[in-house]
Design brief:
two-stranded parallel ribbon, two-stranded antiparallel sheet, single chain, 6 strands
Length: about 260
């Protein structure tokens, strides 16, 4: 998900706080086993790690809405995916309907703050903000999840730990914007993520005429990296949050 500019810095910080507080009391536990064929996502099937319980396949949506197509459980044996699969992940993440709502929401936020005043106000100004916000997402996702992972022979998926302490899992998730797996199963600097978001921030200079100096470019680049890092924390802990809050509420309602 690509969300540039100052408002996203606030949203990223708030989301970080909510996530860490939400799982603070959660003890790591294995999710119930599920039929891999029923997962509906594009992540490769998972296998159990030695000495650990089988994890359920990741949900293809977080909170039932946000796309989660490139999350996979950590495997005992790594299985690479072909370039066609990488493009499939990028396309599904980019053109999934909730991202239209994300673009619309950010456009409304920018409209209220009169961000990029060259777009003016009114319905026409809103449409221009919506178009540029959604373009940010399209360019960033296609580069970081499809085109550059193919070029650098990197795996665009986020491999969820699912076990360990809260701080270990959080630091692992945050640092995956800089560390990734290669198609051979080794670890590498995440060129696709870092360069892809840098290129996307550079492309944004072509239609954000009031943000064409280096500080604005660096802020957009850093904001996107931070946003992606937090989204990976959300992917790491979503099954725990789902089990703790939603599963227990469902059981309580059923008991009544």
């Amino acid at each position: 998900m690509n969300c540039f500019h100052k408002p996203s810095l606030i949203l990223v910080s708030v989301l970080c706080f909510i996530l860490l507080e939400g799982v603070a009391a959660q003890q790591p536990e294995a999710a119930p086993a599920a039929d891999p064929a029923a997962s509906g996502g594009v992540a490769a099937p998972t296998t159990a790690q030695p000495g650990s319980l089988q994890q359920a396949p990741p949900d293809k949506r977080v909170f039932g809405v946000l796309p989660n197509y490139r999350t996979a459980n950590m495997e005992a044996e790594y299985h690479p995916i072909p370039w066609q699969y990488k493009m499939k992940i990028a396309l599904k993440d980019t053109f999934d309907y909730p991202l239209i709502g994300v673009g619309a929401a950010y456009a409304g936020l920018y409209q209220l703050e009169d961000s990029h005043p060259q777009f003016n106000q009114g319905f026409k100004g809103y449409l221009r903000r919506f178009g540029t916000s959604y373009t940010d997402q399209v360019v960033g996702n296609m580069l970081t999840e499809g085109i550059l992972p193919i070029a650098f022979k990197e795996d665009p998926r986020y491999f969820r730990l699912g076990e360990g302490t809260k701080w270990h899992r959080t630091s692992y998730a945050l640092t995956r914007i800089f560390v990734t797996r290669t198609d051979k199963g080794g670890k590498s600097f995440n060129f696709a993520e870092v360069l892809g978001n840098g290129i996307a921030a550079g492309v944004g200079l072509s239609y954000y005429s009031d943000d064409r100096d280096f500080p604005d470019f660096a802020q957009n680049w850093g904001t996107q990296l931070a946003t992606d890092a937090v989204s990976q924390v959300l992917k790491e802990f979503w099954p725990d949050i789902k089990h703790r809050y939603f599963h227990k509420k469902y059981k309580a309602a059923s008991a009544d």
